[in-house]
């Protein structure tokens, strides 16, 4: 479910499915499933380089829990050769969270017929005793820029992680970059329960939820979901553009990506226009620009989900 409250109301609900993958079991799933492959082409394919690219430069990195620690550049040279699980362990380790001997559960979509778009992926991290110690929300916009948000042990209460933090990221042209994300991530059990709200000051302007029951991951289930949710990753990106167009029809004010380039921080894979703006030290105000609308990537958590 996705509901926007201001400046104009806009609400919708869709059904999708997501994978819930223990990163230690990827090789076993690759051998077990005919319709799923690891780092190879298939109907459903999981490529580790699609996630958490810690070997790449951090754009406009700042000091603090979201910015790169001093030790991260030294690890960049070896990160491409590390598994995704090891990159998560190292990312948390440089931020004072020991995940040695623990496990990571990734809730996300894989590539479908080779195409991938994940508005947001969630990493639930458990220590060696099985206790949840951290979560990562990896947000991707339609420019394919990526930013991880860390929810550390101090945000955990009874297996639910809660953090409110400024985005400093261009997620949607209909939300300014300093709007705050409010993450409420419950560790998955028999059901998935995730909520992400937007706040402008004390006012909640948008809410998005992902909910659904856990289902077994097997070839029969994947075949059924292929028929029930055909080309799901293409559907996600298509619906983002469709609802962006509807917001534009409603005359919802929007913000050009280049208008606040220096306020977009701690992200990976920056778009060329963003790099050019910061290189040229250009500054503009944040008044709504008149041009074609960009897609509303704030559809990141708009769907009800079924998690295999």
Q: Quick check: average pLDDT? A: 85
Biggest sheet, in brief? 7 strands, antiparallel
User: CA-to-CA gap between the ends?
Assistant: 19 Å
Number of helices: 6
User: Which geometry do the CA atoms define?
Assistant: globular
> What is the total number of structural domains?
1
Helix amount, in percent?
10-25%
Structural class: alpha+beta
Rounded radius of gyration (Å): 19 Å
Order of helices and strands: EEEEHEEHHEEEEEEEEEEHHHE
In terms of DSSP E residues, the strand content is: 25-35%
Strand order of the largest sheet: 2-1-16-15-14-13-12
Q: Give the number of DSSP strands.
A: 17
Q: Uncertain regions: pLDDT < 50 for 5+ in a row?
A: 281-308
Could you write a compact summary of the structure shown?
The protein is α+β, with helices and mostly antiparallel strands and 308 residues long. 19% of the residues lie in helices and 30% in strands. The protein has a 7-stranded antiparallel sheet, with no helix packed on it.
Fold blueprint:
Layout lengths: L1 E3 L5 E3 L1 E4 L1 E4 L3 H7 L3 E3 L5 E3 L25 H5 L7 H10 L9 E6 L2 E2 L7 E7 L5 E9 L5 E6 L4 E2 L2 E7 L13 E7 L4 E10 L2 E11 L5 H10 L3 H18 L22 H8 L23 E4 L2
Parallel strand pairs: 3-17, 5-6
Antiparallel strand pairs: 1-2, 1-16, 4-7, 6-8, 7-9, 9-10, 10-11, 12-13, 13-14, 14-15, 15-16
């Amino acid at each position: 479910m996705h509901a926007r409250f201001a400046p104009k109301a806009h609400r919708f609900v869709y059904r999708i499915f997501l994978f819930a993958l223990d990163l230690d079991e990827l090789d076993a799933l690759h051998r077990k499933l005919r319709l799923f492959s690891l780092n190879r082409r298939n109907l459903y394919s999981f490529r580790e380089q699609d996630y958490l690219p810690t070997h790449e430069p951090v754009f406009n990195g700042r000091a603090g829990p979201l910015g790169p620690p001093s030790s991260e550049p030294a690890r960049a040279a070896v990160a491409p050769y590390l598994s995704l699980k090891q990159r998560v362990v190292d990312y948390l380790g440089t931020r004072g969270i020991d995940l040695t001997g623990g496990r990571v559960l990734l809730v996300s979509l894989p590539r479908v017929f080779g195409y991938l778009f994940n508005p947001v992926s969630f990493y639930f991290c458990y220590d060696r005793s099985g206790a949840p110690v951290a979560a990562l929300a990896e947000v991707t916009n339609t420019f394919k820029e990526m930013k991880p948000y860390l929810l550390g042990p101090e945000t955990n209460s009874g297996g639910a992680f809660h953090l409110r933090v400024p985005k400093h990221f261009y997620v949607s042209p209909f939300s300014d970059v300093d709007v705050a994300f409010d993450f409420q991530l419950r560790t998955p059990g028999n059901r998935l329960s995730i909520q992400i709200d937007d706040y402008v000051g004390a006012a909640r302007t948008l809410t998005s939820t992902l909910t659904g029951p856990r289902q077994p991951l097997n070839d029969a289930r994947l075949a059924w979901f292929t028929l029930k949710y055909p080309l799901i990753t293409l559907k996600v990106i298509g619906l983002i553009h469709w609802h962006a167009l509807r917001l534009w029809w409603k005359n919802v004010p929007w913000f050009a990506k280049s208008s606040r380039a220096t306020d977009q921080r701690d992200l990976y894979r920056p778009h060329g226009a963003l790099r050019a703006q910061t290189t040229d030290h250009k500054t503009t105000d944040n008044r709504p620009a008149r041009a074609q609308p960009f897609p509303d990537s704030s559809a990141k958590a708009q769907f009800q989900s079924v998690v295999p």
